[in-house]
Fold this sequence. Notes:
The structure holds two protein chains of two kinds.
Chain A: H1 2-10, E1 23-24, E2 27-32, E3 36-42, E4 51-56, E5 59-64, E6 75-79, E7 85-91, E8 102-106, E9 109-115
Chain B: H1 13-24, E1 45-49, E2 53-59, E3 68-73, E4 76-86, E5 92-102, E6 113-117, E7 120-126
Antiparallel strand pairs in B: 1-2, 2-7, 3-4, 4-5, 6-7
Amino acid sequence: MNEQVTLHENKTPETRAQRPQRFLKPHYEVQEQKDAYHVRVFMPGVAKDGVKITLEKDRIFVEGSRREWTGASWKPIFREIPDADYRLQLELNVDIDESRIEARTESGVLDLKLPVSEAARPRTIAVE
Amino acid sequence: MRLIKYDNLYNDALSELDRFFDRTFGSFPAFPGMMTREDPRGFRVDLNQDADNYYVLAELPGVDKKDVSIELENAVLTISGERKARGEDGAESAIRFSRSITVGDDVLAVKVKAKLDNGILTVTLPKREERKPRMISVS
Lengths: 128, 139
């Protein structure tokens, strides 16, 4: 018992890289626009280089890794912000024009614009 | 006579539930539209300290720097502001939020600094020199 306590004390604090990765599902909003879907993913603490977007068939994966944002000498008094990265998987039920997907990050929010492909757009058919 | 704990469910039923849901599911916010109210639990905060400073962190994604206001009164730090959102028709709407947390009373208020980086607000509150623990040598 005693030994365990000293072991614990001697351990240097883990850095983020050493800890097992944990994931959170971020809060997101989807807006349907005329010819595109606009997805806003709220990922506070994620910079531009921490975002990874993968498109696979009819699924879109968003991964956001946070930077270390706490100082090494900081002692927590209370913590609510979970120490985890973000992962979101969305299923697309419409054809998306992959080549025209736009993504940008600003103040911890990822803006994704998913244009509906030409073939999937509603069209009016004139009666001859 | 029955003893009733002060920290019981009936005093603040929601805080207990919030904690449970946050720990279990950990999503932000727990329910869509949670930030639409002026909710004291509208966003997450962290409070840390080291020898020289207190550090308050708050998750404010999508909030502009100029829309945040920070106020320190006695030992209570209040972070409030608004998040602007654009609706489908292009009309702008703003969602107000506010939260107060208690920091130590030994803060040097004039030297408080804040920065907003990638949706995380960091407020650095230096501790007053005269209130820091000091070593006194026996002469």
